[in-house]
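Hey, quick one: can you model this chain's 3D structure?
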Amino acid sequence: MELKEKNLSSIDEVFGKKVKQLNSESVEFGRAAITHYMQSESSEKPFFKNAAIKFYKEFSDCEDSSSIEVSEDAIQYSLFQNQAPFAEPIGKPSFKFIDLFAGIGGFRLAMQSLGGKCVFSSEWDEQAKKTYFANFGEVPFGDITKEETKQFIPDGFDVLCAGFPCQAFSIAGRRGGFEDTRGTLFFDVAEIIRRKKPKAFFLENVKGLVNHDRGRTLATILNVLREDLGYFVPEPKVINAKDFGVPQNRERIFIVGFRKDLGITDFSYPEPLEEVIAFEDVKERESVSVKYYLSTQYLKTLKEHKKRHESKGNGFGYEIIPDDGIANAVVCGGMGRERNLVRDYRLEDFTPITHIRGEVNTEGIRKMTPREWARLQGFPDDFVFPVADASKYKQLGNSVAVPAIRATAEQICNKILK
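Sure thing. Here's the predicted structure for all 418 residues.
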């Protein structure tokens, strides 16, 4: 089969028009299975092979698909391995991990930089999958709550990574154990830990988990991990991204654990770096498009909104981050972008290129660009975003801060690799 289009923004470009039946479950599993298969070692290939072959035969443009076996030559594995900027490192890995609720791969970037190999990834958002594939040459599997998805997870990996969403548990009158987490996404994480028994896990969540449901949610999580699953779990810690080399005030709770038979009885979270960094270190070096500058009408609305809240004694409203300052957490929705405005006087042409009310403001006030958000999260400049700006902001707002993840992962590796 000759591949005419080498576009890593979509696996669909590789397998032709038939694959664009996006609602087909076989397509969903097939795209993930075939890219996982091509990047897996012999011990993991059986978990993906049947689905990979089925997908290849059904959706490739090869005329004689009935006799095709999946092979590195047949689907030109070099397309994935050579062009994906963050493809799997060459050589024997120091450890293996899985990437659950993978987003765009923040965990994966951190773990690969430490010599790890990802043997399974899962993410339900289709736009995030595009970005993940563009950078790693692998399409994540979908909904991890489905048993069909769990069946693809290989045995023998060392670390489970998951930035799972926070949900309340119905634990009234009960002990807050494994069964009490049913119906939540944490239950699926715990179920995978129970089945696969990795050496360690690394979980990330919002700071609000500490006090969620008056602390009962976190207490249930720790009880399941310690008592039901039998892992050594040190007290979780709230880690701030600004302490690890990025100018963003982003606090997240980290939970790590180790299988008890490893004999690990202590763990220290990483100490903050003594590095002074400010927004100017990630600011665009050149003048940016006029589309990022606020209109006079929009700026007027923001000012009025902030003034109303100030009159009530509230601190809500837009915020302009000085070049020598630290950005607020980049988040999706609400005032996520408006709380991270900047001044940039380099714009020369104020002619709008989008439909706006009013004119482009002349005060130099603009939104941060998606690339600036990426730098705030610790993503390198060669990280690819084959999606629209709206999706870029959403993906980055949902992502982990890579340097903080890496610093903690390094401490985990120091324990399990001894």
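One thing worth noting: Confidence is low (pLDDT under 50) at residues 1-9, 64-74, 76-82.
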